[in-house]
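User: I need a structural model of Aminoacyl-tRNA synthetase from Eubacterium ramulus for a docking pre-check later this week. Nothing fancy, just the predicted structure tokens so I can convert them on my end. Input:
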Amino acid sequence: MELSEGRPLDTEGRLEKEVRVYDLLDQLGITYWRTDHEAAGTMEDCNEIDRILDVLICKNLFLCNRQKTKFYMLMMPGDKPFKTKELSAQIHSARLSFAPEEYMEEYLDITPGSVSIMGLMNDTDNQVQLLVDEDVLQGEFLGCHPCINTSSLKLRTKDVFEKFLPAVHHEYMVVRLGQEEEK
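Assistant: Understood. Predicted structure tokens for Aminoacyl-tRNA synthetase:
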């Protein structure tokens, strides 16, 4: 695995949704670095990718309420534990659970193992609320998939939150996870 700046020179054989990510980032003037790799479906798979990108890849969880009427994407550091009770209290939504994969595909055009903030570009009706752990905002860079888990991107955190999110018409809510461990 090696790190390359920008989009792949040849996009033949790549999924359309991946190429759309590169197109949008280029259109927005966002600098990014990319590495291609075997499918990374777990945080353990991402450890080697983290070393190549020299950044912590976020754990991205696709969640919903019990009625499946509200959907959330949670971005958090991969090494932080996730407790639904803690998050539910902060967003005032009882009974959070992992959303069924058909909603992930319908709203984000993403399959399990590829959940990424980049998928919000496909959520044109704003069905998914972005939740971001405060620690994600502290780093200069963040890592994510371009809607497919066989490539990973390194982007400036500031560019993601100040250029990308406004361009895809999404706002975010900051949450603080891991507080229970601090007590």
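Before docking, keep this in mind: The chain has a mean pLDDT of 90.
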